[in-house]
Amino acid sequence: MTEKTTSKSQKDNKSIAYYDDEHHDYEDFWVGRDYEHESEVLALNKLLSNRHFDLAMDYGGGYGRISPVLLDYADKLILVDPSTKQLNIAKERLAKYKNVEYVKVDKENSVPAKDSTLDLLVMVRVSHHLAEPGPTFKEISRALKPGGMAIIEIANEAHFLNRMKYLSQLKGVPKTSVPIGQKANGITDNTPFYNHNPNYIAQLMALNKLLIVDKLSVSNLRSSYLKGHLKLKTMLKVENTVQPILAPLNFGPSMFFLVKKED
Length: 263
Ligand SMILES: C[S@@+](CC[C@H](N)C(=O)[O-])C[C@H]1O[C@@H](n2cnc3c(N)ncnc32)[C@H](O)[C@@H]1O
Fold this sequence. Notes:
It is globular and about 50 Å long. The protein has helices at about 25-30, 35-50, 65-70, 85-95, 135-145, 160-170, 200-205, 225-230, 230-245, and strands at about 5, 55-60, 75-80, 100-105, 120-125, 145-155, 180, 195, 210-220, 255-260. It has nine helices and ten strands. The chain has a single domain, classed as Vaccinia Virus protein VP39 (Rossmann fold, 3-Layer(aba) Sandwich), CATH 3.40.50.150. Helix 2 crosses helix 9. The site of S-adenosylmethionine (SAM) has 19 residues, from loops. S-adenosylmethionine (SAM) binds near residues 65, 82, 83, 124 and 129.
């Protein structure tokens, strides 16, 4: 277990260590969100099934919530995050794994890996903090080996309920990212949050030589009413079935793309 800081602190760059906020507990955010967590685990297992990777990166991995899933499919995992607090929690939670390296990044759009070295990169719930994901995709593409894969999760502005909302206002879903405030999830109030249009995301992926291999619609039943009335097991059974079916409709609040770097 080692830690490196790859990019030098740059005074001119604004900090992206939002999750160092002492008043915010990201582990607490997940209390009562078993459905969302398990839905994401289902999606990751579906996309990674029958694959194995030498070197994987959990990019913006936070406290390592999804790292144990990734470790089922990789010989070695690099957990990257700008937050020292999250990295320290991750080190405790993942202590039993000896094949995890912890790396702090302090620069936006920077993937701390040499060119063409990663077999897999997974980025879940990070696009939420990116006003313009293009530069990050460029970095991901640079760091992946030719034929290497990435799972990129997108906070979906075009989800079904939002589409109905835009339609009722006789508007289309904005093409590019939509700022959704700076206080979502109770985190420090200078943290930017954005949703994205999956069609635009697909264009950015293509521009960066990331070919879409598969796509899943995730957390499709996210609703406090349903969560209050249905058993978790039932919700997950439905979720498991509909993730691929609803993907072409960009239905859910979260879209998981499996992409492959062009050979
Ligand atoms: C919502 S948490 C998600 C953590 C983890 N991926 C998960 O799904 O539980 C967002 C994480 O992204 C990190 N982060 C925020 N902005 C980032 C950026 N520009 N590049 C990389 N990571 C970032 C945060 O420090 C935080 O740990």
